[in-house]
Task: structure prediction
Amino acid sequence: MHNLWRIRRYVRPYLAQMVWLVLAAFAATGASIAVPLVVARVVDGPIADRDPAGLFGLGALAAVFGLIEAGLIFIRRWTQAASAVGMETTIRNEVYAHLQRLQIGFHDQWQSGQLLSRVTADLSVIRRFLSFGLVFLIVNTATYLTVVALLIHLRWPLGLLVAASALPLFVMSRRFSRAYIAASRRMQDELGDVATLVEESAQGLRTIKAFGRRPYMASRFGREARQLHDTAIGKGRLLALSSARFDLVPNLTLAVVLVAGSVAVAQGHMTLGELVAFVSLQLMLIWPIESLGWIIANAQEAMTAADRIYEVLDTPPSIVDRPGAAAVAEARGHVRFEGVSFTYPGTTTPVLRRVDLDVRPGETLAIVGTTGSGKTSLVSLMPRLYDVTTGRITIDGHDIRDIRLSSLRRLVGMAFEEPTLFSMSVRENLTLGRQETTDDEINEALRVAQADFVDELPWRLETRIGEQGLSLSGGQRQRLALARAVIGQPRVLVLDDPLSALDVHTEALVEEALARVLRGTTALLVVHRPSTVALADRVALLADGEIAAVGTHSELMSSVPAYRAALSAEADDVVSR
Result:
């Protein structure tokens, strides 16, 4: 209940609407309760007295109550829908914004399908509870108590019998709750697993087809789907059994009331109209009791959904602005790594150890090393995708942790070896980090990246490139990512082998254009191709997470055998790819 109770802060902005819809529900219930009392007057009055004229007034009164109830139900449902969707939207926006704030390490450890199911399915469960389950819980409880009080007033022995029937309902509901909450959590977790599998299969469809593994993936999905199916069936069985039991109690009570009430009428202790009213009112209790199982199930699902939502919201971002962090509008771009060590969260083996580097303003430093030496980890520390474990990184003497994240990521531009493009237009992808970019700046960035293929797309810059940019070749995706990195004219440019998918001719053209761009920019280049080293003023050799040597390309080639071996290994790797 704790996490579900925490949802109340999203209800507060809609509290006035919630009060009105509850009042409308109470009024509608009152109108429906009044109808059996009118019927009792009809039976004991005009029908008993054989007075047809008296039927019209009471019939009209019953019709008025019916119209009032219908109108109030419409108002309640309409208000419910508007407020519930508003609450769901607010929670979804907050969860999405929090996911954006969370560090890369969090997303490395979580399945994307699990996060997707929390933002979609779990929020829908909470919305249903807030809009229907919670309201019906309040209204049905009030209806039950009101009707039982009227039944006791009409005929107290029978009324107490109806009230006593609540005891077995209470016992059954407790047993049902314990079993259903476990099944509900299991099903929601399995739903997230299936969503992850579908997403991975869609993104890796080319690989699946290329290796002829469609039957294997279909079998794997079938197992996951069957497990979800079995859990859902078990959950449905629990709900069906509880609904049947909840339905059995009021029907048995009704049978007893009909027999005992008939005897009371025959003995003159009740009028026929009172018996009709009593039975009609008791029939009104069937829906609140039958719906009890659904309400409990909905509440249990909402509890587990709230738990899953707050598993995300309660995870604090570890990479945040320090107190007193300042914005930096201008920078010369003097970058220093001072005793930097780094260990990935959740592991104990350091990836980087005691890294010391000094990159002067406007200098280009290439980072060379064999696969697994820590090159990508090193450059990922610059924009604070991860934070150093020990030591510090500075720009112009300022620890990057003392620079506001928004400011730091304007100063540092980055292009990855595996570029991520979004299902939006080319223009939107290029200007992702700098919305105010002009067409001239976009065209210049495209020229630097040799991305002239954009002119051949159907709608040029306005062409939507599809999810992950898979409608483009690997080289085209890399060139767009490179253009996106340089378009903001960052003071520090970090390029994690952004040319690996380019052919030799295109690579030469890009390197020539990059050489002009890099003249006034401090740059860190992760190098896999030996030809790319020519862009650098100096080279740092990274071996087993440590800086083994720093110097010019010619110096290292002549004096450091490990450097020659690393370049040779990278060249062989490029050829194999």
